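Raw record, unedited: HPr kinase/phosphorylase
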Amino acid sequence: MSLSIKDLLEDKAYGLDLRLIGGEAGLVNRLYSSRIQKPGLALTGYTEHLHPDRVQVLGHTEISYLRQIPEEIGRKHIETLCSFPIACFIVTKGLDPPHFLKSAAGSAGIPLLVTHHQSSTFISLITKFLEESLLPATHIHGVLVDVLGVGVLLLGKSGIGKSECALDLVIRGHRLVADDIVHIKKKMPAALVGQAGETIQYHMEIRGLGIINIKDLYGVSSIREKKIIDLVLELLEWNPEQEYDRLGIDDEVKTILGVDLPHLKVPVRPGRNLTSIIEVAARNFLLKGMGYHSAKEFHEKLLARMEIRAIGNEVE
């Protein structure tokens, strides 16, 4: 994942409040890291530990230093600094940078931007912006619902009934996050956050009815903008020749963006109440999170009883 300096300039959601004052040619420069750097020592000519791929933030201390040293020395150090492939310079507190910095950045095609924020505030804002924007992401064909606080990702081939299950869950008081396409971002260290695309948010496609707006039909309590995905439940067409898990002892996982999620496979056939099965799956997930595994406990009790019977037969 990466983003351009132009993306920083166009931000509205995080309040970076940036304006360009030079180096427009470098707006296509890409950022790949969420880390920033304050190039204090680099302004003195020491560039040993310079990271040119990071956003370079110049605050009151850095600008004051450049104004106080002789202009010839300052220009020399800035030209040395600009000889590196710097992603961009950002000056905080609305300060006016020295003209030789503007000139060198413009000649090297390095974007020079200014924000009114203080350095500490701006570093916090841009770090959050970069961390969110550079997270690994993907999208999956499916439906994401919030069932009893559990983020359940419903998978299955088109037409198997994912949206109908989600609609029934909404009617029962649960919440829709996304239908059809689920956009997923990895939140460090190991959580996946799903949400709908902006154009289809709050909407569902129900065959025979068309597109419906869940928020308008059932109110704001029936929707969520985003949800951490806790459980993957895949709907499969019933195959009488296939053997399905009837005990639930062995836990399967599905890996998305390097994160392993519990994976349940539920066969679909007439007469099965899938909505109730999904609700029970969510409740069972919560129980497992509290350390109670129904299937394993049953299995252990069964084995213990078999051992007791075997000992009894030996005594006889």
